[in-house]
Design a protein that fits this description.
alpha+beta; four-stranded mixed beta sheet; 6 strands; globular
């Protein structure tokens, strides 16, 4: 999984455009979304149609019954921390 995260770090705009067409990368955000040491795989501040928002990416190599719940938790935590709307996406590899 770490190699996928490094790939996103190497070309963040490419991944943002793939997942959210029209998004323009503003900055890569810290991946720790709360002081409880909860980390996401990638979190980018983007502009979509001129409006700021966050794009949250998670990578999975196999099915996870808890993924929807975790994605919701990460989304809410990032929304509360940064006060921006968050688009969360899971990329199954």
């Amino acid at each position: 999984m770490a190699h996928l995260i490094k790939l996103v770090q190497a070309a963040p705009q490419d991944f943002d455009s793939l997942v959210l067409p029209g998004a323009v990368l503003v900055e890569e955000m810290p991946t720790e979304v709360l002081s409880r040491n909860i980390y996401v795989d990638a979190l980018h501040k983007v502009l979509l149609n001129g409006a700021p928002m966050l794009l949250h990416l998670e990578f999975q190599t196999k099915g996870d019954r808890e993924m929807a719940q975790r994605l919701l938790e990460y989304n809410v935590l990032a929304t509360c921390k940064y006060k921006l709307p968050v688009c969360s996406c899971v990329l199954y590899i």
